Amino acid sequence: MLGVLMTLIALPGMARAEGIEVNEARIEYQDGGFDLAASFDFDLPPPLEDALNKGISLYFVVDFQLTRPRWYWFDEKPVNASRSVRLSYHPLTRQYRVSTGGLQLPFMRLKGALQFIQRVRGWRVFERSMVKPGETYQAEARMRLAGSGACFTASWRASSYSSRWCW
Fold first, then answer.
1. From CA 109, how far away is CA 101, in angstroms rounded?
2. Which InterPro entries match (predicted)?
């Protein structure tokens, strides 16, 4: 179980809708724990890009949940983790900044900052001791834009559909 990685290409048959989409999500075993590796795809609609360039920070949140289905009781949810990423623009230096945890990275172009946000790698979501060998689990990953919907347009989804897979 631990050596096998299951990959799900999320929603392959759906027509592309505007908003956040999950391209890929998988769990990788590394050094006694499991890391999430995921890629998302989105373009900021003009109202959000305009708000960002006027000094409003955008907060993207990646949610991960691990569930063990049980026929006799409610499903067990041993892991429920979230990671927030802040995107801001600094007009004095004309740089976009991506902040997550204690890490702050500058980008000259919005495209580079968005590409960094869209690719999640090396995020430790749970340790090996949190899962029972031989059991089947369902993993779920999604990205959403946190905050008020004042800048959202009706045609833009502020959250991806969840990508679910068993392993």
1. 22
2. DUF4390 (IPR025500)
